[in-house]
């Protein structure tokens, strides 16, 4: 709740604490002064000079008043935000334990995670500076010839929409941050952002070309990305010039869609015949699509955002990376867990107890569904979460419990299910992979 309020406050701050008004005020004052100077210089007589200066007084005073007023507004908005920040964070009671930092000895690992995060976010300039500064000192000697010329390195990034002000050169990369990998990743992510930017501008072709080039890998992953993109292109053309803003020609509209479908859908017949049939039949209803049974397929309000998300996912997976930055996920999950951790540590300190569980958190962390990557099983007998060493097992009767619990219940090689009358042999209990 506090976070939502804070987000609103940030929005308010960005809305009201803009210095652009003040800059405009100053520009107006400068303009007035410049005009006056020109007039004085042109006339070159004392009478005009004094008259111009007298005339200048009031407008300048007014200008300065407006400027002060605008600056006051900015200052007020900043003060308000400061209060909002204090209010939002004062609600967190207790302090975090600082005596033990499990990541202390893993500085290189953390630096690597940060560098990777910046690279995959497309912040190449920041990543370059970060990697450079994270490098152990003192620096080896820099020879100008060891730096590839910026022009050649910039080339693959020229299409990128994200800042590419600085390029990571081999000399900048510390031994632990594998040089070629950073460079290759940067080039790869530059391509990804370039394609994403085209998608944002409703241009599907770069994404389709990428999907076609990588169709074998995508298909092996069971991905439908290429078809989804072609399907969207078909619908995009189908909607015609009034919707897609493309030139009104035989390449656009229903005819353009038909042509596009003829040229491209053939390769998807074996996997998506039903959908292709629906898309083709919709041509018959082109004049009255809203009333046709195909109405819902042609609703593409979210379609571009959806293909962009699945493109990002597939692109990252072909690079062997998750769709979301691990650092982002870890930091977000950690932030969500913080209030619980603070509460827990305050409680254990008061009771004089200690955290004893090794493989699980001692408290429940409320994470959103998108952050749950696998199921959790809590044994109904021991009330403990199962682990790799103590996995859940399913009995032939269908009841599930942790293996250690079952071993405790068993007599020799036989057990009796704690939840129903059935009995069986230990070897019949099968491990479940979550
Ligand atoms: Zn049972």
Question: What's a quick, concise take on this entry?
Answer:
The chain is mainly alpha-helical. It has 16 helices and five strands. Helix 2 (20-43) runs antiparallel to helix 3, helix 8 (205-213) runs antiparallel to helix 10 (225-238) and helix 10 (225-238) runs antiparallel to helix 14 (303-318).
Q: Can you offer a commentary on this structure?
A:
The protein is mostly helical. The chain is built from 16 helices and 5 strands. Among the domains are: 18-82; 109-128 and 180-328, no CATH class; 375-434, Zinc/RING finger domain, C3HC4 (zinc finger) (Herpes Virus-1, 2-Layer Sandwich), CATH 3.30.40.10. The two termini are 33 Å apart. The longest helix is centred in the N-terminal third of the chain and has 45 residues, at 46-90. The strands form 2 sheets. The chain has a 3-stranded antiparallel beta sheet. The radius of gyration is 32 Å and the shape is flat. Helix 1 (2-16) runs antiparallel to helix 3, helix 2 runs antiparallel to helix 3 and helix 4 runs antiparallel to helix 5 (124-134). The model is unreliable at 142-175 (pLDDT under 50). Zinc ion binds next to loops.
Overall geometric form: flat
Helix percentage range: 55-70%
Instruction: Give the strand tally.
Output: 5
Derived structural class: mainly alpha
Q: For the terminal residues, how far apart are their CA atoms?
A: 33 Å
Bound molecules: zinc ion
**Which spans have pLDDT < 50 for at least 5 consecutive residues?**
142-175
Strand residue content: under 5%
Neighbour order of strands in the largest sheet: 2-1-5
